Structures are given as structure tokens and as C-alpha cells.
Amino acid sequence: MSYRKTIINQQTGKEETGTVLDIIESSEPIIRLKLENGTLVRIKQSIFEVILMDQKNDKGQDMYNFECNMATKIIKAGDIEDD
Q1: pLDDT tens digits, residue range 1-36?
Q2: To pair with 46 at 20 to 30 A between CA atoms, which of 28, 30, 31, 60?
Q3: Residue 75: helix, strand or coil by DSSP?
Q4: Do 68 and 48 meet the contact criterion of CB atoms below 8 Å apart?
Q5: Is 10 within 8 Å of 42 (Cβ atoms)?
Q6: How far apart are alpha carbons 8 and 16 in whole angstroms?
Q7: Within a 13 Å sphere around the CA of 74, how many CA atoms are in the beta-carbon half?
Q8: What are the φ/ψ torsions at residue 79 (nearest 5 degrees)?
Q9: What is the CA radius of gyration of the chain?
Q10: pLDDT at residue 82 is higher than 70
């Protein structure tokens, strides 16, 4: 069930309001990057909350605020395991 929420805009320091939307489906795969020096980077992004803001951007489009967490693991080329 969606509900109203007020947040502080980190860029302006001003309060802004919006509607928290329920996440009804999510796919959060692990991103794998292999760098030219052989290093493997794995990134997992987890989204906890999405807010449809009341304000629009300069083009009149909807703006969203995301509460998320990013986990990363960096594996040196010599330490890469089969996974």
C-alpha cells in the first residue's frame, strides 16, 4: 500500500514530498565486470524504497527517489575462482 513521505533533498537541503510506491516485482542480478587488467568486479544493487516525487523535472517529467544499497566485491586477477 502506497503512502506519503517527506524527505530532505541532499542537493538543496529542502524538504520534498512524494508517494512511496510498492515494489511488486524485482530482479536484482549481480553485475559482473572483467577489467582489462584481469580484475573481476561484482556489484549487487538492492532497492528498498521508491518514491514518486510531487515535483517534476525541468522537462515536466516525473522524478523518483530511490533508497538503495550497493555491495561490491573486487577480486584480483590471480585470486579469481570459478564461480
Answers
A1: 788 999 998 888 999 999 999 999 999 999 999 999
A2: 60
A3: strand
A4: yes
A5: no
A6: 6
A7: 4
A8: -105, 5
A9: 18
A10: no
